[in-house]
Design a protein that fits this description.
heterodimer, A: about 260 residues, alpha+beta, Alpha-Beta Plaits, 7 helices, B: about 170 residues, mainly alpha, about 50% helix, elongated
Chain lengths: ~260, ~170
């Protein structure tokens, strides 16, 4: 009962036929899959045209000019809290934080900078990868969100986020704003103010508005995909980098002067 | 003597049994006495966002559909917004303050209590419309006038705004 390794011409032929068959099957499958994908993309586009659904044509992002951001100013944080009804709920250890102001100091040169850090709206977001229910997701236009209707509060995404951008709501909340429903048992983070920018990009996220009102204008919101956009031209002009670029997450929030 | 005693015990047992039966099945005999839900009329608007019968039977489906459309696809200004339901259906107290639409006896509660439905929507979503003013869409909100005018002109074209304005002029 030994297996014969050297095959006869006969088996060679049937092997070839088998290979050809498998290859054709593969090709057929690939064509089917790609045409289905195309159809789906088409359907999505059509849906977008008729209903105003967001598409991948745009990719929203922020450019933060750290040279204009001053230490001790927390206007963006206050603007964000006001917009989303984030009050001093809970205690210091568990309070929701959509933006954190961080002061950095280079020990060697002594140079200091102050930066707001919020959800970086990664292109390949670790929080999306780990979510067991699909509640942590990336919208077609690049905004990373929590769908609180399907969030089970497991907090894997908080563990996975390298930017510590997400908060968990521990307590029962009251008096939420209609534009920003928030509640106990779910994870939340910066939404790039979807409820504003979906209506018009000119509305700008609340942090950017607050920063401009403070005459700093350190936060610029816009379309990363459009080379003509104010954001893209500014970025080209002054240059910008990603926080932890080594992670290759292709963040939607970029910093100048870090 | 022995015989009459037996009859008495017999009678007692039968009447006790009858009483027990009546008590345990009371829910069945007096079911008509369970109060029908009182559906408070809408505070605003002439008609609902869809046919009234459809709203009665299928409002949860419309809401589910819309929430996915809005949260996942960013569709705004569609008719079955929860903000809209609250805006039209929340009552005002005598002092003019809005009453939570999910408070006892209120629109989103009385039917649900009757049908033993419990919804958690308003643990996150605002249950009173006043705060809708803070979105910066409605006429008398605390935002500066220049900002309001800017927002208004931006939103003129969307049906959301048209609806909103309609609510507020009819009121």
């Amino acid at each position: 009962m030994q297996k014969n390794n050297s095959s006869s011409p006969q088996t060679d032929k049937s092997l070839l036929a088998r290979r050809r068959f498998l290859r054709n099957l593969g090709l057929l499958g690939a064509t089917a899959v790609s045409s289905f994908t195309l159809l789906e993309v088409k359907a999505r586009e059509q849906k977008a045209n008729t209903t105003g659904a967001v598409t991948a044509e745009k990719r929203w992002g922020l450019l933060i000019d750290t040279s204009k951001c001053s230490s001790g100013c927390d206007a963006c944080v206050r603007g964000c809290n006001e917009e989303h009804g984030i009050e001093n709920e809970g205690n210091d250890a568990t309070r929701a934080q959509w933006i954190r102001k961080i002061d950095l100091k280079d020990k060697l040169t002594g140079s200091e900078s102050s930066v707001p850090v919020m959800c970086q709206h990664c292109d390949s977001a670790p929080c999306v990868d780990v979510c067991p229910t699909g509640a942590s997701f990336k919208r077609a236009d690049g905004i990373v969100l929590v769908n609180k209707h399907t969030c089970i509060g497991c907090r894997y995404c908080m563990m996975a986020c390298p930017y510590k951008a997400r908060s968990f709501i521990h307590e029962t909340l009251t008096n939420q704003k209609p534009a920003a429903p928030r509640g106990k048992g779910t994870v939340e983070s910066c939404t790039l103010c979807v409820h504003r920018v979906d209506r018009s990009e000119d509305l700008q996220p609340a942090c950017a508005v607050a920063c401009t009102d403070e005459a700093h204008s350190a936060i610029l919101f816009g379309d990363l995909n459009d080379p003509q956009s104010k954001l893209a031209t500014k970025m080209k002009e002054i240059g910008a980098s990603q926080v932890r670029a080594d992670l290759q997450l292709n963040t939607g929030v970029r910093y100048h002067g870090l | 003597m022995l015989r009459s005693l037996a009859t008495v015990t017999h009678r007692t047992i039968v009447s006790v049994l009858c009483a027990v039966m009546l008590i345990t099945t009371a829910g069945f005999w007096f079911a008509g006495a369970v109060a029908q839900p009182v559906i408070v009329p809408a505070f605003k608007g002439e008609q609902c966002v869809a046919d009234t019968n459809l709203m009665r039977s299928d409002h949860m489906k419309l809401l589910d559909h819309q929430r996915d459309d809005t949260v996942i696809d960013g569709v705004r200004g569609a008719p079955y917004s929860l903000i809209g339901c609250v805006d039209c259906h929340a009552q005002r107290s005598d002092s003019g303050a809005a009453i939570r639409v999910d408070a006892e006896g209120q629109f989103c509660q009385s039917c649900h209590a009757y049908a033993a439905v419990k919804i958690d929507c308003f643990s996150c979503h605002a249950a009173v419309p006043e705060q809708a003013r803070q979105i910066g869409l409605l006429p008398d909100n605390p935002m500066p006038h220049a900002e309001i005018n800017r927002v208004m002109s931006l939103l003129k074209s969307t049906d959301y705004h048209a609806k909103e304005q309609q609510f507020f002029t009819t009121n």
